[in-house]
Every structure is written in C-alpha cells, then in structure tokens.
Amino acid sequence: MGNLATLPDWLVVGAELVVIEQTRGESLSAANVKVERILKRDIVLDNGVRFNRNTFSTSGWRIKDAFVNRDPGHWSSRTSYLTAPDNPGVAAALREGRIKKREEAVRRAGNAWERNRRDPEVVMTLVREAEALLGALRG
C-alpha cells in the first residue's frame, strides 16, 4: 500500500464500483456504489463511506488492485475492499460468500436433524440445504 501519484483509470467521479466486505467469521458481502467525490485524502462514496486514497493495494490476499479499509473491532473485525466491478477477485469473493452461507445453512439443518432425526420435514430441509451447497460448489 502506498501513496498514489495517479489514481487507477477506473476511479473517477461517478464511477460505479463494488465494495466487498469481509468479517472475521469469513462472511463476504458486496454492494454496488458510486464515487461521489475524490478529495485530497479520501474517496467519498454515495453511501457515505470513505476510503483513504493512500490505501491502494496491488497484493491483497482476497482482492488485488483495490483500496482497503480495515476496521478492527472489539469482537468483529471487518475489512472492506473498493474496486472495479470487473476485478477478477470480485466474482471469486462473491462465490466464496455464497458457499459460506450454504455451508452455514447445512450446519444449522444438520443440528436440527441431530435434535429430531425422525421428522421428515427436518430431513427434507437438510437435503435441500445440502443440494443448495452442492449447487454453489459446482457454481
């Protein structure tokens, strides 16, 4: 990360970009945003979020070529990436987020099955969630 003399071509006022957020629990989410202003230090988005223009990273673990915000909270740290929608890391991050959500749904359905193994509806819920996870993995 470092100070950019020039900004990436995709970062202009009015540009439609993507913010990927990752929490400590590895869940990922994405939001489409527009650049409202580019100031001396900050990039201001239409949702009020700001990214420091000196946080551009070309070697991120999840998303390369993005501006990075790190918010180390007390129990839940969050990292946000501001990048172009055609960044290859965006599709990979969104796919991973879908898989994590499906895994969590299978875990919850499995726990319900452990408590009530003979209920056909509980078994069908587990089967549906497992099929949804399989679809996400093949995705």
Please describe the topology of this protein.
Layout: E1 16-23, E2 28-38, E3 42-45, E4 50-52, E5 56-57, E6 66-71, E7 78-83, H1 88-115, H2 120-138
Antiparallel strand pairs: 1-2, 1-7, 2-3, 3-4, 5-6, 6-7
Helix pairs in contact: 1-2
General description of the model:
- Helix content is 34%, strand content 29%.
- It has 139 residues and is an alpha+beta fold.
- A hairpin with an 8-residue loop joins strand 5 and strand 6.
- The protein is elongated and about 65 Å long.
- The model has no long low-confidence stretch (mean pLDDT 85).
Describe what is shown at a glance:
By secondary structure, the protein is of the alpha+beta class.
Descriptive key words:
139 residues, alpha+beta, seven-stranded antiparallel beta sheet, 2 helices, 7 strands
Low-confidence stretches: none
Strand percentage lies at 25-35%
Main β-sheet description: 7 strands, antiparallel
Average predicted local confidence, pLDDT:
85
Order of strands in the sheet with most strands: 4-3-2-1-7-6-5
Helix content estimate: 25-40%
Would you count the extended β strands for me?
Answer: 7
Dominant shape: elongated
N- to C-terminal distance: 33 Å
Continuous helix count: 2
Structural class: alpha+beta
Reading the helices and strands in chain order gives EEEEEEEHH
Please tell me how large the radius of gyration is. 19 Å
